[in-house]
Amino acid sequence: MPSRALTNRRDEAAFTAFVTVNRPLLQGVAYLMVGDAARAEELVQVTLAQLFQGWPAADDALVAALRRLLATDPDRLDPPWQRRTRFELVDGSTAAQQLPEGIVADLAGLDDDQRRTLVLERYAKLTPEQAAAVLGRDVAEIAQLTRQARIQLAAADPERMDEVVLDAQLAGAVPYVLRTDPLSVTDVTRGRLVLHQQRLRRVAAVGAVLVLVALGAAIWIPRSHPSSTGISPPTAPIAPTTSRPLPPACGTTDQACRNRTVAAWRDQMASVIRSYLDPGQTYFKSVGYTPDSRYESPGFWTGEGGALGLDLVPRDGGTTLVYLQIATEEKFAITCGELSDQPCSSQQFMDGNRFTLTNSTTTRWGIEVQYSLDEVITVAAFDVGEGRPLAIGSGDLVKLVKDQRLHLPHA
Question: In this structure, are residues 289 and 312 in contact, taking their beta carbons and an 8 Å threshold?
Answer without folding.
Answer: no
